[in-house]
Amino acid sequence: MAKAKTDGQETVLRFLGGTADDYDLIVAESTGGLDAHWKRWILERMQDPQQVLDLASGTGILSFLVLDRFPEAHLTGVDLQEDYQAVAVERSKRRGLVDRTTWHRSAVEDVELPEAAYDHIITCYLPKYADRPVLAERLGRWCAPGGRLLLHDFAHPTDPKVEKVLHERYVRWLDKMERERPYWVQCFEGLYDFVRESPWTEDLPPLLEAQGFVDLEVTHVHKGCAAFITGRKPL
Ligand SMILES: C[S@@+](CC[C@H](N)C(=O)[O-])C[C@H]1O[C@@H](n2cnc3c(N)ncnc32)[C@H](O)[C@@H]1O
Known about the structure:
alpha/beta; Rossmann fold; globular
């Protein structure tokens, strides 16, 4: 029997259902290029990765940046959405990277993965959607001794001036999508409030600490519009 979906899974399917074909373009343009910057932030903090787990790998934007930059690395991607993952799988075939990739079409909360197998666990845009107690427990099991965690997502700025500019940007994008790409409207209608209401930068660190992660840091970037949680498993 299929597992019931969590609220976060239902939300992401509502926001992103039917958007796989132009996701890469929209994420690049709607963040004004910051998406690439945030992914570089992760890449620059990876050290000699061998077994990388990319959670919510989507169409594989981050996954293929890792594979290009680290020729020794094998990458395992997990994503809920079939059409997003189909883009990643097709890309791995086209680029001759099938042997260096493993793809699981599953919710992160349900996927079966080997224990202590990954020296780097990375993600862009999962934490706000995930069932975080379940995610933390699973990260604790999957991360190898000495392994690193690099988690990224949108955050909500605390400065009211920045908040105003960000909100205006969402409204402009919503208006543009209503005219040009109506299948993106649900996303631009709901994402601002969903990010604002998500406590992921506060509730995830103690959950990770309880799973044995150390050196946990929350780093806010771009005036608080995005954040990273980094940490490691002791050897
Ligand atoms: C905004 S996209 C990001 C994709 C990719 N990480 C990137 O940076 O381009 C969010 C992705 O998270 C996936 N996702 C959200 N919640 C998930 C969950 N609980 N388990 C697996 N995938 C999830 C969605 O299917 C979607 O592909």
